[in-house]
From TrEMBL:
Signal peptide: none annotated. Carbamoyl phosphate binds at R54, T55, R104, H132, Q135, G260, P261. Keywords: Pyrimidine biosynthesis, Transferase. Pfam families: OTCace (PF00185), OTCace_N (PF02729). This is Aspartate carbamoyltransferase.
Length: 302
């Protein structure tokens, strides 16, 4: 494995190896000195064309814990804002000898393009509405950690599927790992091609909740919307928001997930967001271990 561009590229064995490696590396986070010398002398570039707090910081922390050198390249204050193309930026990074480039870009397919232009490994940290593979991997890791196994697990992904790269990556990965996924959304927030995805679709959250082991709530991505996809925030919350009452309809052991950032009061109530059954902060912590595992496996740490 040289790049991580899509969860659809991972075999079951490869995905499991990443999760197992992350579990081993998570123990480093419990030590007083959280550093390993594994990637000393390697350079990881964070190339972010879109704003991101969690993902960028998480990749930076992961690389530093493995003793790699990290360069944060934000498009806003760089030559990109002067009109430099992705290809020219890539060639610049190539000339600097980057061993890995972590890219987030608003154009679907940007990570794949980049992989053709650099010799180092490319890690897709989100491309347009296409994929976000490390998010799906950390989600799977969190599910496995909380619930024991992914085989036969029933996962509902709820909300703005249309604009969600997290949803697509999760459907592909979780299916590979033996889970059953149901997407729950209003028809206007489902992609046209959803019938080709390996999952079920429902428009009725209340019907799906009692038979779900995991409910993953997605943020409505207003910044990617140019039209009105639902009548009002209140209407959306009433049909697709997770509140205490709906949480009560879920099986006792079931967990609530969210890739963040959460919009409290819209897709998730404060009561649910702060409940011990919500794994949001765990997902963030697990994200560091998971991204350490991916960097370690791609850059051939010993």
């Amino acid at each position: 494995m040289r790049h991580l561009l899509s969860t659809g590229d991972l075999s079951r064995d490869e995905a499991t190896l990443i999760l197992d490696t992350a579990a081993e590396l998570a123990q480093v986070g419990d030590r007083s000195v959280k550093k390993l010398p594994t990637l000393r002398g390697r350079t990881v570039v964070n190339l972010f064309y879109e704003d991101s707090t969690r993902t960028r910081t998480s990749f930076e922390l992961a690389a530093k814990r493995l003793s790699a050198d990290v360069i944060n390249f934000s498009a806003k204050g760089s030559s990109v804002s002067k009109g430099e193309s992705l290809k020219d930026t890539a060639l610049t990074l190539q000339a600097m000898g980057a061993d890995a480039v972590v890219i987030r870009h608003s154009a679907s397919g940007a990570a794949h393009r980049l992989a053709n232009w650099v010799d180092g490994s490319v890690l897709n940290a989100g491309d347009g509405t296409h994929e976000h593979p490390t998010q799906a991997l950390l989600d799977a890791y969190t599910m496995r950690d909380r619930l024991g196994s992914l085989e036969g697990l029933r996962v509902a992904v709820v909300g703005d599927i249309l604009h969600s790269r997290v949803a697509r990556s999760n459907v592909l990965l979780l299916t590979t790992l033996g889970a059953h996924v149901t997407l729950v959304a209003p028809p206007t927030l489902l992609p046209v091609s959803v019938n080709t995805w390996p999952c079920e679709v429902s428009y009725d959250l209340d019907e799906v909740l009692p038979k779900s082991d995991v409910v993953m709530m997605l943020r409505v991505q207003a910044e990617r919307m140019r039209d009105s996809f639902f009548p009002s925030v209140r209407e959306y919350s009433r049909n697709y928001g997770l509140d205490g009452e709906r949480l009560g309809r879920m099986p006792a052991e079931a967990i609530v997930m969210h890739p963040g950032p959460m919009v409290r009061g819209m897709e998730i109530s404060a009561e649910v967001a702060d409940s011990p059954r919500c794994t949001v902060t765990e997902q963030v912590a697990n994200g560091v271990s998971l991204r350490m595992a991916v960097l370690y496996l791609l850059l051939g740490g010993s």
